[in-house]
């Protein structure tokens, strides 16, 4: 039986694939809408909508962002199907999707590489950061705080998905190794114990920051 994280991973992949196959359908490359994928998505959304109490914080955060993304695209699909059935002139779905993503991402992602998971990291005192809706996590021994690092990874992944940034190259193992090395590096250089990681979206770009806790 698949784990919750595995099913959420399946949900994310299916949402991406749904966009691709609807693009093909509206462009004339498919004869029918991708109803099978849509059915799978609806089953997972319904299952965890009824089992919200079973989800950990990071999983719930990931689930909520995925369902929001799906709801937005589902509304596009519904309108586009209606236009297609009525034979009205319409823009290509890809253009419509890009218009939506442009609202959420004004520039290309400063994305972490698959092997390091995050490279653009600010190293400043935590007090210098303004308060906001960013996801924050403090750790001192990431190798012994697996749940915290998992939550950080989920928050980072979902922030990028919500912003329309590429997530296919992200590696959980690589991300964990990056957090471990970055934490140890800051502890050595800054003579500190705790490091705060912040996931936030600035001007449409998702950023992961490592902040020294005083």
Describe the structure.
The chain is of the alpha+beta class and 214 residues long. It folds into two domains: 4-104; 123-212, no CATH class. The chain is built from six helices and four strands, in the order H-H-H-H-E-E-H-H-E-E. It has helices at residues 4-26, 35-50, 57-86, 93-104, 146-162, 172-190; strands at residues 123-125, 135-139, 195-202, 205-212. Strands 1-4-3-2 form a four-stranded mixed sheet. A hairpin with a 2-residue loop joins strand 3 and strand 4. The model is unreliable at 89-93 and 106-132 (pLDDT under 50).
Number of domains: 2
Terminal residue distance: 44 Å
How much of the polypeptide forms β-strand, as a percent range? Answer: 5-15%
Order of helices and strands: HHHHEEHHEE
- Which strand order do you get reading across the main beta sheet? 1-4-3-2
- Gyration radius (Cα, Å) is 19 Å
SSE map:
Blueprint: H1 4-26, H2 35-50, H3 57-86, H4 93-104, E1 123-125, E2 135-139, H5 146-162, H6 172-190, E3 195-202, E4 205-212
Parallel strand pairs: 1-4
Antiparallel strand pairs: 2-3, 3-4
Helix pairs in contact: 1-2, 1-3, 3-5, 5-6
Overview in brief:
This protein is of the alpha+beta class. The protein has helices spanning 4-26, 35-50, 57-86, 93-104, 146-162, 172-190; strands at 123-125, 135-139, 195-202, 205-212. β3 (195-202) and β4 (205-212) form a beta hairpin.
What are the defining features of this structure?
single chain, 214 residues, alpha+beta, 2 domains, four-stranded mixed sheet, 6 helices, 4 strands, 55% helix, elongated
């Amino acid at each position: 039986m698949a784990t919750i994280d595995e099913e959420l991973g399946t949900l994310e992949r299916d949402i991406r694939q749904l966009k691709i196959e609807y693009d093909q359908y509206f462009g004339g490359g498919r004869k029918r809408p991708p109803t099978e994928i849509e059915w799978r998505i609806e089953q997972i959304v319904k299952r965890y909508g009824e089992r919200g109490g079973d989800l950990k914080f990071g999983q719930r955060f990931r689930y909520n962002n995925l369902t929001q993304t799906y709801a937005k695209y589902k509304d596009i699909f519904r309108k586009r199907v209606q236009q297609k059935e009525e034979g009205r002139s319409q823009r290509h779905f890809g253009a419509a999707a890009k218009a939506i993503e442009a609202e959420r991402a004004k520039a290309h992602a400063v994305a972490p590489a698959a092997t390091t998971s995050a490279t653009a990291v600010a190293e400043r005192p935590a007090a210098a950061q303004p308060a906001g809706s960013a996801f924050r996590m403090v750790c001192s021994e990431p190798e012994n705080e697996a749940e915290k690092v998992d939550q950080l990874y989920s928050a980072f992944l979902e922030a990028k998905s919500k912003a329309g940034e590429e997530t296919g190259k992200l590696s959980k193992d690589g991300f964990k190794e990056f957090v471990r090395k970055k934490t140890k590096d800051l502890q050595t250089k800054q003579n500190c114990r705790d490091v705060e990681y912040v996931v936030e979206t600035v001007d449409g770009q998702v950023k992961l920051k490592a902040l020294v806790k005083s």
